[in-house]
């Protein structure tokens, strides 16, 4: 799975890992940023993430341990991160509400799709702003200091300092 190769979606070990994450998410999503258990559960759910980030519940992921969020990161309400492959989010990244980040890519062939999945990592550089409702697809890299418009569907890499919007996301010239 982590190597980007097809893997068995019914693997028992992966099922147990998803179940663990689901139980932690159930607890996490009942908390506020001010509850004492917030940081403790966040550390257990996302062990590779700095404790200096803020995630506003509700939040959803598959495993948690494939998510890396840098210092000063802010994840707003109702975000979904399907982390079959690593999701690397740099420092000082702002992610709006209802953003979805997917690493899972399903085979086109319907018979193959019943048995296997493929995951490709997503990387978001430092100082990016991801607008509310944006969707970032598997394998995408967003360069540092980029802006993703609200509701954009990002299907391709975004260069450093890029500003994209739309479906599919395309470069735009920002208004002053």
TrEMBL record:
Acetyltransferase implicated in the O-acetylation of Nod factors. SUPFAM superfamilies: Trimeric LpxA-like enzymes. This is Nodulation protein L. GO terms for cellular component: cytosol. GO terms for molecular function: acetyltransferase activity; O-acyltransferase activity. Residues 1-51 form the Maltose/galactoside acetyltransferase domain. Keywords: Acyltransferase, Repeat, Transferase. CDD domains: LbH_MAT_GAT (cd03357). It comes from Alistipes indistinctus YIT 12060. InterPro entries: Hexapep, Hexapep_transf_CS, Hexapeptide_acetyltransf, Mac_dom, Trimer_LpxA-like_sf. PANTHER family: ACETYLTRANSFERASE C18B11.09C-RELATED (PTHR23416:SF23), SIALIC ACID SYNTHASE-RELATED (PTHR23416). Belongs to the transferase hexapeptide repeat family. It holds the Pfam family Hexapep.
